[in-house]
Every structure is written in C-alpha cells, then in structure tokens.
Specification:
The chain is α/β, with parallel strands linked by helices and 386 residues long. It contains 13 helices and 13 strands. It has helices spanning 52-65, 80-86, 102-123, 134-143, 205-210, 234-247, 261-270, 272-277, 289-294, 305-313, 327-334, 346-350, 369-382; strands spanning 42-47, 69-76, 92-96, 127-130, 147-150, 166-170, 185-188, 217-222, 252-256, 280-281, 298-301, 317-319, 339-340. The strands form 2 sheets. The chain has a 7-stranded parallel β-sheet with strand order 3-2-1-4-5-6-7, with helices on both faces. Strands 10-9-8-11-12-13 form a 6-stranded parallel β-sheet, sandwiched between helices. Helix 3 crosses helix 4. The radius of gyration is 21 Å and the shape is globular. It starts with 41 loop residues before the first strand and ends with a helix.
Length: 386
C-alpha cells in the first residue's frame, strides 16, 4: 500500500463478460520507463466530479478482479467528498473547485496538476484513467504517463495540447466531435450510467427519512450547473419557472439535490416559503441519488448525469438544460427517454404531473457498457510495451 494513493477494493455483483473493440492501439511517444516495474500493472483513477464516484466503483472492482492495482485520487468539488464517505471509499483528496471564471479554472487546474505530481511519482502508475480530469492529463503529459480520458459530453473536451492518448466515449457520439484525433478512439455501447445502474437495489425508507407524506407525487430536482463554463442563464429561468409550476400542486413534494453548499444555501434563501410549507425539501446530507430517482414520479434536471440516470432506470425525466445539447441527450430525446424543455411555455405543456407506474424492481439485466469499458482499458494496458 502506498502512502499517497490508496488501493481500493469494492464489492459488486456484476459478472464479467467480454466484448470486442476494433480500435487501433499505439503506445504514446516516449513513455517513460521510470514508471514501469516487474509488478502488477497499476491504474491511476482520478475522481474529478460527483458522478464519477458511483461510476468508477464497478470499474475499480472489475479491474481488480482482473489482477490490476488501483491507485485513487479525487478532487474536492461539488459532492465528491460526501459521496466518498457515503460509499465508504478510501481516497486521497487533492485540490478543489475553481468556480466559473475561465481564467481561474486554468490556474486552479495547473496548480492541482502540480499537487498531484508527488502522488503520481510515488505511485508509478502504468496508465492514468479519468472521466474528464484535465489536471491528471496535464501532469501525465509532464511525467510521460499514458492517459485514457472518458467523456460523454463532447462540448467540454476542447483541450488543445492536453489531448489524452486515448479517448473512451459512448457509441452514439459521432466521429470527429469529441476530439481532433483520428486514432486512439474507443467506444462503448449505451450510457455511462449503464455501468452502475444494474447494481442498484431500491430502499423505500428514503421517503420516510426525507419526511415525504404517503400518497404525494414525488419530484426529484437538480438545479443547473451554474458554475460550469458551458452554463446558459436560460436554464436558471426554466428551473425557477418549473418550481413555481410544481408549487401549484399541493399534493406534490419536490426534493432538490444541489450541486454544492453554495447552491443549497441559495435554494433555501430563494424558496424558503416552499420549504416551510413542506413542498420543497433540500436534504442536509448526501442521499443515494439513484434511490431517490427510483421512488420519484418524475425527474427534472438542469442537465447531466441525473437526467441520464433517470433514463437508465426508465423514470420520466425532463431536462431544463439550455447549453449546447450533446449527442447523448439528443439520442435519448429521439428515443423518447428524455424530454427537452426549451421554453417557459413548454413547462405546463410537456411536463406531466402524474404518478409513475413503477415496476416491481429495476431492470437488473447486465449491460454491455461495463465490460466494454474494462476490455478497452485492459487492451490498452496489454499493448503498452509492444
């Protein structure tokens, strides 16, 4: 066990299956032999955002089952630390969030890259893996560590010289939009949420714990990511108007899951009347998002993971995200698994405030995303020295 990075072991019931991937693999130029040794191959995973915690749990488990050692770091951003505690996941937390100023983002990412350097040098990983960690890619470029970056929203990946060696993305994203690279692109079927949704087991006690009255319509809300550089203020207008629309129904309880404490305080200030009436709940601690979604009748979110989690579970979901719509959301909308709210007029016309005809249990079928992702990572590792 290393001092600066902690190898983790996470239990899961996911079986291992194999899948083929036709991408060409080539070793990145001048990979330093200082990071090679006669030992188990090490994969450094950096958890950069809240959704990455549940997403990487089954990936970590599967890679460890195949004999790889996992080195884990995380960024103190949004609810990452709360989720690490919730899932009992030991991890070295390095650096934090920069806010929405673009210049400050560049500076903070550069500083965090330097903060990651001691752990990376002592851990000597054979491969670095993340879902969009620019700081990890930056320090790996300096230390000549091969990098794989996963992503499922193509409008946040323009990194210029910080391009990773390989990119892993959903197969619904068209060629040429995720990267300028023409090689080193791997794809997996389905959504990234399909990696961990099959592990989910419902627990109805969450409704009692949150104080939701029996028989009430339950709506899960996720405010827009107003600190993201792709944020469009129209999303906040739609979110506010949606809350006013929901408030007209006295037999409805909305549960808002803020992205950080600043957003939580803003919700409590702006909607204090709804909170006092019991129509709006802002939990004081992290909750199991999938569990809340499953016991909701509908989900309304400012975009991102929660929309896709609802779609993966089959729960009716509406997006008030007004940034550039990505290929995954367009795919879900075309398949009628997600409804895009594009104007204030859409709110009463499209949002259906009706009870969801919930199945007896979630769809627990094994999905291909997890084995495909793991197979791609293993294939890259197996070809590094060739």
């Amino acid at each position: 066990m290393l001092n600066h990075m902690i190898a983790t072991k996470v239990t899961t019931e996911e079986p291992r299956t194999a899948s083929e991937n036709g991408s060409q693999i080539s070793r990145p130029a001048a990979t330093s032999c200082a990071f090679r040794a006669s030992r188990r191959q090490r994969i450094w995973i950096d958890l950069d955002n809240s959704p990455h915690v549940p997403f990487f749990l089954p990936i970590i488990e599967e890679l460890e089952n195949r004999g790889f050692e996992i080195l884990l770091t995380a960024r103190d951003a949004y609810q990452v630390c709360d989720l690490l505690k919730f899932y009992h996941l030991p991890c070295k937390v390095i650096g934090g969030h920069s806010g929405k100023n673009k210049a400050l983002k560049v500076l903070v990412n550069s500083v965090r890259a330097l903060q990651l350097a001691p752990s990376a040098m002592k851990g000597r990983p054979d491969l670095a893996l993340s879902h969009g960690s620019r700081a990890q890619v930056l320090i790996c470029k300096a230390l000549r560590i091969p990098t794989v970056m996963m992503h499922d929203y193509e409008h946040t990946t323009k990194t210029g010289f910080l391009e990773p060696d390989w990119i892993l993305m959903p197969d619904v994203i068209p060629d040429g939009v995720m990267s300028k690279k023409t090689s080193g692109i791997f794809r997996y079927p389905g959504l990234k949420e399909d990696v961990y949704v099959p592990r989910f087991k419902p627990d109805a006690s969450i409704l009692t714990e949150l104080g939701i009255a029996p028989g009430n319509l339950v709506v899960t809300l996720r405010p827009p990511a107003n600190e993201a550089h792709y944020h469009n203020p129209e999303s906040e207008v739609l979110f506010a108007e949606t809350l006013r629309y929901l408030a007209k129904n006295p037999k409805l309880t909305a549960v808002a899951l803020p992205r950080n404490e600043r957003q939580a305080q803003q919700l409590r200030s702006d909607w204090s009347d709804l909170i006092q009436s019991g129509q709006l709940i802002v939990p004081k601690a992290a909750v199991n998002g999938l569990n809340l979604i499953w016991f909701s009748d509908l989900v309304i979110s400012g975009g991102g993971t929660m929309n896709r989690e609802a779609a993966a579970l089959g729960v009716p979901v509406y997006s008030v995200f007004r940034g550039t719509i990505g290929a995954v959301d367009r795919y879900l909308a075309a398949k009628h698994r997600l409804v895009l709210i594009e104007s204030v007029q859409d709110i009463p016309q499209k949002i259906k405030l009706v009870a969801w005809n919930r199945p007896a249990k979630p769809d627990g079928r094994n999905r291909l995303a997890l084995p495909s992702i793991v197979d791609s990572v293993v294939s890259i590792l197996n070809n590094l020295d060739r």
